[in-house]
Write a structure and sequence with these properties.
Number of helices: 9
Radius of gyration: 18 Å
Strand content: under 5%
Shape: globular
Number of strands: 0
Order of helices and strands: HHHHHHHHH
Largest sheet: none
Structural class: mainly alpha
Number of domains: 1
Helix content: over 70%
Distance between the termini: 21 Å
Length: about 190
């Protein structure tokens, strides 16, 4: 039986994030909750989403429940991505909001791919779902590149100053790497 490592890593990421959310107890900067603003019981919402991520991440580890796990995670991440749409509509020229939207869509893309590939029988429908996942992820990588390009000095500030040659070099290098990765993903017809 073929081991699908990506599905397992994707699920482990959801498990890790769910555990960190449950253990950390600080939701002021939690990206997904922050987008909905000041709502009552935001911590309760965060705990609910953390438990859902744990359930989805654990379910995706088992071949029999992998589709359920992928569907669960994909649904949660789709909700988080759609929460950015009103903010995008309010200020469509602020790319940060687009970047946050595509960050969540990249997680939905992973769920689509994980949903399509858990079994040995790979149906035509599964190929279309996987293709949608690959293409949408490639578009997200374009967004990552654009966000770094638009906020290049901010990206450079994330690089520790002690890493040679300098911060801007690494900001530009990773931006170019995102561009090359997007080209590779979107042009590789073997993936679909």
């Amino acid at each position: 039986m073929k081991l699908v490592l990506g599905r397992h890593i994707y699920g482990l990421g959801a498990i890790a994030f769910g555990l960190i959310t449950l253990i950390w107890h600080s939701f002021n900067n939690w990206h997904q909750i922050r987008v909905i603003g000041n709502v009552p019981y935001a911590e309760v919402l965060a705990y609910i989403f953390a438990v859902i991520e744990l359930i989805g991440g654990i379910a995706i580890q088992n071949l029999k429940t992998a589709r359920f796990g992928a569907l669960t995670l994909g649904t949660v991440y789709l909700v988080f991505s759609l929460l950015w749409v009103p903010l995008i509509i309010k200020a469509p020229l602020v790319y940060d909001r687009w970047g946050n939207f595509f960050e969540q869509i990249s997680l939905v893309s992973g769920a689509l791919i994980a949903y399509a590939m858990p079994g040995i029988n790979y149906l035509e429908r599964d190929k279309k779902i996987a293709k949608l996942g690959y293409i949408s992820f490639g578009i997200c990588v374009v967004s990552f590149m654009l966000e770094q390009l638009f906020y290049l000095s901010g990206t450079a500030s994330f690089v520790p100053k002690w890493i040679p040659p300098d911060q801007m070099f690494w900001a530009i290098t990773t931006t170019v790497a995102f561009a090359v990765a997007a080209l590779a993903i979107l042009s590789d017809t073997q993936l679909y």
